[in-house]
Design a protein that fits this description.
The complex is a heterodimer of chains A (454) and B (190). Chain A is built from 21 helices and ten strands. With 454 residues, chain A is of the alpha/beta class. In chain B, the strands form three sheets. In chain B, strands 1-11-6-3-2 form a five-stranded parallel sheet, sandwiched between helices. The N and C termini of chain B lie far apart (58 Å). Chain B is of the alpha/beta class and 190 residues long. Chain B is globular and about 65 Å long. Classes of the chains: A alpha/beta (454), B alpha/beta (190). At the A-B interface, helix 2, helix 3, helix 4, helix 8 and helix 10 of A face helix 1, helix 7, strand 8 and strand 9 of B.
Chain lengths: 454, 190
């Protein structure tokens, strides 16, 4: 399997597109800053959110039981899935038992994590993704490249070509308004005909047994209110104790994600409408294992706003696909190794450890600390590439021996000055995208010794 | 062992030591001098239109005028067709304009809470091409914290905060109003 660095190399081949990706996401980050700074209590809100999540995670079993009890009283059917396979089986069973063929789905990273669409496709069942960005990538048989902006890796001419092929829009018409309108007409037909609607869950409220789903497009509502069956899939960490806590999270979510004061729709589902079925699937899929790891349990606080993606200098310049996982970016780099520390051994290294991710996180996850801890964990488990291991061991050897370090530094300065071709060649990976610095006349140590004497 | 028991016992075994819930002190959050002006300002930045009327009578006149411009309007403020709660999405797809009332409007973000009772039919505020929400001036609150104090989210089977018209920026981050839901939202404050 290709690692982050190899996949990133493919992404950056197209320089103007890489720059566009970088600048566009930085602009989203800028909008987030403006929204955050408009509230004097922003830091207090983050602290409240973090504490509510910590509390909920530390009492999760009782809150889950409270939630289930209330949801059952509300007339919902509650299912429990230990892993992705069971989640997919539960949904397949509901589809089969009700003889359903027309299914719409709004955005749900959990169903991506469980590869639900592939599972159902293999059984001859088609699911129509209804978020515009997700519909675009679904037509192209691609996964989303960003959890909030699924088609951010594409330009409008790509979308125009895709829509020309699938929706017969005018060839070469790249107007986003025109293309969005075409998708609106196409998807309204799908909504109206839908028999079953699948949604994710942004928040589940223990005290009321309800789930909250946030969208800007209104696609979750169009699907769920048209269909006779609504299935809401949620990882168990979505639970919060009380409805009043929604205020804290809804104030943070959209501001962190896109800089909007709130998403257009924040829909609170409690009871099925007359004649409708409401199913809630509660999924573990490795989460209880994460909960038991003191260094990594904080990652379960994530509310999937993607602020850490937009601020990350590595994500912005390497794109979502270089993370080869359903959740990319800094948060993906600490979540995915929990599932498979060998397959995702490269991800904690796809970071400069600048710490910006932790600073923008609305629930105060220590993302960059966890990245650093994962590096140690992965090294202990022996999943680090040989070249990196040898290099780091060599460096540790030199750094532990001041005499050798000083000699090496002197040698390097001498080589850089007299024989630059020894360093500036293709064997040196650092030379690939950059010029080597001109050598300083003296080392800092020499300078310090000389100036201290004065 | 059922999956439920398996999951719950795994959680019991691995959950961290209990921590306390924070006290949410809402006197510590932002405040605005003029709630109506703040609500209007935010609503306009998120693509909505705000109409201020002086009283219920004038509000009703504005609603009647708006309904007279369209072919297929649904007004839930007065007496409505008794079949409306159960009409299918297919039949509602041709609604040009729906008029509903809201419970609480939020000054900090332009959102309005609408309960299932106020929607009459759950899909109505989402499927109509244009939406009007009417709200009393006294029902504008400062923030989401204040809003949740005034509503009971589980009182009806469904309810939503609606903030502006439906929108997307999924194509090259270009904002387009009118994704799947209403392409226009007018809020009448009376």
């Amino acid at each position: 399997m290709k690692d982050h660095a190899t996949l990133a190399k493919e992404f950056i081949k197209d320089s103007p597109r890489t720059d566009w990706h970088d600048e566009t996401l930085w602009f989203v980050r800028h909008k987030r800053d403006k929204a955050a700074h408009s509230l004097p209590e922003w830091e207090q809100l983050r602290e409240w959110a973090s504490q509510i999540k910590n509390h909920a995670l530390s009492n999760l079993d009782s809150y889950l039981e409270e939630f289930e009890k209330k949801a059952l009283e509300n007339g919902a059917v509650v299912h429990w899935a230990a892993d992705a396979e069971e989640h997919n089986q539960i949904i397949h069973k509901i589809i089969k038992e009700n003889g359903i063929s027309r299914i719409v789905k709004s955005k749900s990273m959990l169903t991506e994590e469980c590869h639900l669409n592939h599972y159902l496709e293999a059984k001859g069942i088609e699911v129509v993704d209804t978020d515009l960005g997700e519909r675009i990538v679904q037509f192209r048989k691609e996964p989303p490249s960003h959890i909030v902006l699924p088609a951010i890796h594409l330009k409008k001419m790509d979308v125009s070509e895709t829509f020309h092929e699938h929706l017969h829009t005018e060839k070469g018409n790249n107007d986003p308004k025109y293309l969005t309108h075409a998708a609106r007409l196409h998807l309204r037909e799908k909504f109206i005909a839908a028999e079953l609607a699948i949604t994710g869950v942004n928040f589940a409220v223990a005290e009321t047994g309800g789930v909250v789903v946030c969208t800007n497009e209104g696609n979750a509502d169009m699907g769920t209110h048209a269909a006779k069956i609504h299935i809401a899939s949620m990882g168990f960490e979505k639970l919060i104790p009380k409805a009043e806590h929604l205020a804290v999270f809804l104030r943070l979510l959209a501001r962190s994600a896109t800089g909007q004061p709130i998403t257009t729709y924040s829909s609170h589902f409690h009871k099925p409408k007359p004649g409708q079925q409401l199913h809630i699937v509660i999924v573990d899929n490795g989460r209880s294992r994460i909960l038991g790891k003191p260094d990594f349990k904080n990652s379960l606080k994530c509310i999937r706003c993607a602020a850490c993606f937009n601020t990350c200098p590595v994500y912005r310049r390497s794109g979502g696909y270089s993370y080869h996982a359903s959740v990319a970016g800094p948060i993906g780099s600490i979540l995915n190794p929990n599932f498979d520390s060998k397959a995702f051994a490269d991800l904690p290294f796809a970071s400069s450890l600048c710490g910006s991710c932790s600073n923008v996180c609305p629930v105060k996850i220590d993302i960059h600390d966890q990245l650093w801890k994962w590096r140690q964990e992965i090294t202990r488990q022996g999943h680090v590439a040989v070249a990196k291991k040898v290099g780091l061991k060599g460096m540790a050897f030199v750094l532990a021996r001041p005499g050798l370090y000083r000699f090496g530094g002197k040698m390097l300065r001498w080589v850089l000055k007299t024989m630059p071709f020894m360093i500036n060649n293709r064997l040196n990976p650092w030379y690939k995208q950059r010029e080597m610095p001109s050598p300083p006349k003296q080392s800092f140590r020499d300078w310090y010794l000389k100036n201290q004497k004065r | 062992m059922s999956s439920k028991d398996k999951i719950l016992s795994a959680i019991k075994e691995s959950k961290p030591a209990s921590t306390a819930l924070p006290v949410i002190d809402i006197s510590a959050v932002i405040s605005f001098d003029d709630l109506k002006a703040q609500f209007k300002k935010v609503l306009e930045t998120i693509g909505g239109v705000c109409i201020e009327s002086v009283g219920k009578g004038e509000m009703e006149k504005i609603v009647a005028a708006e309904l007279s411009y369209v072919q297929n309007g649904v007004n839930t403020l007065g007496a409505y067709d008794e079949g409306l709660p159960l009409i299918s999405a297919e039949d509602l797809a041709s609604v040009d304009l729906a008029v509903i009332s809201g419970t609480v409007a939020v000054a900090e973000n332009g959102a309005i809470w609408v309960s299932e009772t106020q929607m009459v039919n759950r899909i109505l505020p989402f499927i109509a091409q244009q939406l009007i929400i009417v709200i009393e001036k006294k029902d504008i609150v400062t923030t989401m914290h204040h809003a949740y104090q005034k509503i009971d989210v589980a009182e009806t089977g469904f309810g939503a905060f609606i903030a502006g018209p439906s929108k997307t920026a999924d194509i090259e981050q270009s904002l387009v109003i009118g994704a799947h839901g209403p392409a226009g939202l007018k809020v009448i404050i009376y």
